[in-house]
């Protein structure tokens, strides 16, 4: 299976923060959710994928190509959907099409107008009059109109009302039907990904904690609830982090089979949501 994005041992040091030894692959034809709390390094990583920041060490490749010799070819194949307006506010969509279209070899006017109609976007109104959701639809229409193979979305649902957020997520699923596109979706709102993501990459404090399929996460990670009397130095090794609870403890494990072997029916095992995994991972002392 081809990796559309491949980061190998990528490090970037910024003032007071760093992304360390990032090894991240984004698989072709799937939606990968990129999760982590604010300040975890999501935007820094995306800027390196977009070649807006140069890594201090390591290798960044997209479509098997590097930016040093193939920058124009790579950027022809990427669409970036911003969480805010990046166009001059006085422009309308016709103006933007006239400016942006010639920059792409595969720009498709017919497709552009199809998406404008589908998204119910006004052609002649200034971008500054658009709602946040409409601005996002406009960015998406432009990305799709040059047949972008990789669509990168940085916190696209932040600030959207629940109805429009649902519409956007449904639209992303629809775009994936023919298998020709790959979506890399960065967010700290993990519930957005429960329905649409195929893979989850989780970053914390500049380090990639895991990059797994939704299926594997459901198979491996769980919340375990039990009495404190069950815990000792040996049994605690089955957990990533243990949190006190009114009736005992709640702990996160990444090895459900081991927990069953150690505790049997003495504990309750429940599915862990992405949000719960993030919360309990934050409490652990070291990365694995």
Percent in helix: 25-40%
Structural domains: how many: 2
CATH fold label of the largest domain: Rossmann fold
Q: Compute the gyration radius: what is it?
A: 21 Å
Question: Which CATH class of the largest domain?
Answer: Alpha Beta
Q: So, the CATH homologous superfamily of the largest domain?
A: P-loop containing nucleotide triphosphate hydrolases
GO molecular function: ATP binding; ATP hydrolysis activity
Protein name: ABC transporter ATP-binding protein
Pfam family, one: ABC_tran
Keywords: ATP-binding, Nucleotide-binding, Transport
Structural notes for this entry:
The protein is an alpha/beta fold and 288 residues long. It has 2 domains: 3-213, Rossmann fold; 222-271. Helices cover 31% and strands 29% of the residues. It is built from 9 helices and 14 strands. It has helices at 42-49, 67-76, 93-100, 109-118, 132-145, 162-175, 214-220, 256-263, 274-282; strands spanning 3-14, 17-27, 31-35, 57-62, 65-66, 78-81, 150-154, 182-187, 199-204, 207-213, 222-226, 241-245, 248-253, 268-271. A 6-stranded mixed sheet has the order 6-7-8-3-9-10. The chain has a 4-stranded antiparallel sheet with strand order 2-1-4-5. Strands 12-13-11-14 form a 4-stranded antiparallel sheet. Helix 4 (109-118) packs antiparallel against helix 5 (132-145).
Write the SSE topology.
Layout: E1 3-14, E2 17-27, E3 31-35, H1 42-49, E4 57-62, E5 65-66, H2 67-76, E6 78-81, H3 93-100, H4 109-118, H5 132-145, E7 150-154, H6 162-175, E8 182-187, E9 199-204, E10 207-213, H7 214-220, E11 222-226, E12 241-245, E13 248-253, H8 256-263, E14 268-271, H9 274-282
Parallel strand pairs: 3-8, 3-9, 6-7, 7-8
Antiparallel strand pairs: 1-2, 1-4, 4-5, 9-10, 11-13, 11-14, 12-13
Helix pairs in contact: 4-5
Keywords: ATP-binding, Nucleotide-binding, Transport
InterPro entries: AAA+_ATPase (IPR003593), ABC_transporter-like_ATP-bd (IPR003439), ABC_transporter-like_CS (IPR017871), ABC_Transporter_VariousFunc (IPR051782), P-loop_NTPase (IPR027417)
GO molecular function, one term: ATP hydrolysis activity
């Amino acid at each position: 299976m081809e990796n559309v994005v491949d980061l190998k041992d990528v490090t970037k040091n910024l003032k007071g923060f760093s992304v360390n030894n990032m090894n991240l692959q984004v698989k072709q034809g799937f939606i990968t959710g990129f999760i982590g709390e604010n300040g975890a390094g999501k935007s820094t990583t995306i800027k390196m994928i977009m070649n807006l920041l140069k890594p201090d060490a390591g290798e960044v490749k997209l479509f098997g190509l590097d930016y040093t010799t193939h920058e124009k070819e790579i950027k022809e194949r990427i669409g970036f959907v911003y969480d805010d307006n990046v166009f001059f506010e006085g422009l309308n969509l016709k103006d933007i099409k006239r400016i942006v279209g010639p920059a792409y070899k595969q720009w498709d006017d017919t497709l552009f107008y199809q998406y404008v109609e589908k998204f119910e976007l006004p052609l002649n109104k200034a971008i500054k009059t658009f709602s946040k959701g409409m601005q996002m639809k406009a960015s998406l229409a432009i990305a799709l109109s040059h047949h972008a193979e990789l669509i990168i979305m940085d916190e696209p649902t932040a600030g959207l009302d629940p109805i429009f957020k649902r519409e956007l997520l449904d639209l992303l699923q629809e775009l994936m039907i023919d298998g020709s596109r790959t979506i890399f979706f960065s967010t700290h709102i993990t519930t957005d990904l429960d329905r649409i993501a195929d893979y989850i990459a989780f970053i914390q404090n500049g380090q990639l904690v895991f990059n797994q399929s939704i299926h594997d996460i459901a198979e491996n990670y769980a919340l375990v609830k039990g009495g404190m009397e069950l815990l000792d130095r040996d049994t605690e090794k089955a957990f990533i982090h243990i949190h006190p609870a009114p009736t005992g403890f709640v702990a996160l494990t990444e090895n459900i089979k081991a927990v069953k072997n150690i505790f049997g029916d003495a504990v309750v095992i429940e599915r862990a949501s992405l949000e719960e995994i993030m919360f309990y991972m934050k409490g652990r002392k070291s990365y694995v």
